[in-house]
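1st attempt posting a full record on here, be nice pls
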Amino acid sequence: MPSPTGAAVGRELAQKARAKTLAAGEKDAVILWASDAVRDEGAMIAFGLDLLGVEPVWNGRGIIKGLKRLPLSAARPQRRDVLFTSSGLFRDLYGSQLALLDEAVLLALAASRTTIERDYPALSYALQQTLAPVSAQLATENAGPDTVLTDEPLEQNLVARNWVDELRRQLQAQPSADVAELAQTASLRVFAAAPGSYGAGINRLAERSSAWQERSELADVFIRRMGHAYGLKERSLSSGSGRQQAYQQQLQAVANTYLGRASNLYGLMDNNDAFDYLGGLNLAVESLTGKAPASFVIDHSNNDQLQITSLQQALLGELRGRFLNRQWISPLMAEGYAGARTMGSEFIEYLWGWQVTSPQLIDDWVWEDVKAVYIDDSLQLGMQEFWQDGHNVQVQSNILAVMLVAADKGFWDADPATRQQLAQMLAGNIVRHGLPGSGHTHANHPLYEQVKRLIAPALAAELEQVLAASRLPDDSAADTKAPHHIQEIILPDDKPQEPAMATDGQSSGSAEKPAAEAWQYGWLLLLALLLPVAGMFRARRL
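the predicted structure (as tokens):
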């Protein structure tokens, strides 16, 4: 990958992106998912390559044998600077593609090699060291019949321009640092989670709303988790080692972010991966620059109808077309508790994730409409009765808690009457049916202080009684011998006992029992060793 078909789709998408995005002078950030790469034959990889002004070269069997730079033209007036953020599964399955992207970045940088050496001679050695992993490719280009230009102006080669600017800043900040290492770090553009790690961590934190106070805390988690560089084996800094500072430096110049969707099997609010990656990426950029980037969703599920839409348009269109639509809600109600969970423990949680990561996209009217449909039953679907049916009430409690948390954290400017209504319903549900057990409703959640102020004193007392019964004892009131870590747990009946010995030197019955058990264990061990041997002889006969 990318296949010739995937590359054709990627080129067309890149051309649409150039025409649509206005902030072309800064970086573009592309998210790579393995599930989509399987379906689109690497279209999003090709999308990033074309923005860099590089394309694959295939052999006669359709296997990529290298890369070549494309000349600048009226259709491609700039060589864009692209930052790639990969999912953990993409990293595991497509490591060679990550190396391909890293190589493409270096080839794009080399397009201004002569310009840099002429205008910034002090950086010549650093540039030479940075381009060393692709020196063979560059030598092949120079030996070919076609002239390959290396004097592109930095205004047209954003990879080279940003590399020069970033390296000069780093040299000013660290004059005694290794120049070659700083130069190589400034050229890193391919990042993912640490080897063996999966997910950006934003989804789990969003679901635990009491674990953080400011959104910047989530942005820090995203940068720490995703700031591991990957690429060519020849690049010692690109082997998955932590390069959070380099990733942070790259994020500071991101103006546009992209997430591709190669299938209509799922939407942006069908799971927590979309806001975990795209929402987390946007949040990280916003935390560093003070402004959210322009964010786009690429729909290439149909090669004949390639579309690039803004994230806000894609989100709100999905919200209106599905989650606030009676034709989506009514069939789910027929599924009982499973349908309730899909509404409340999935859709509402994922809407909350987008609220946390992209608050500029989720206005007050969204929560007001959600409340009208799911709480006030504005569509007259019988929601009140549905929520009180069996365990559905626990899902409703979670919905009410998320809404109150959104208001408490300042995302939703709900009026006092609305807050009081939601608090009254949540407290009543908990008093009658107990805690639902979500990350927004555990007994120590600070949300309950707001709730108790909004409800009647008698109900507040009953609520506190339920919460108190669900809390662990305070450290001050607990037994001093109580364990604080699971490793310290020792049950009273598990104390080791020495075998009793008879006074005449003979072993008692209690000493003979362990010996007999050891003899039995020996036979079992011998049998376990013989079974594979018997299996080998049987396999030979087959």
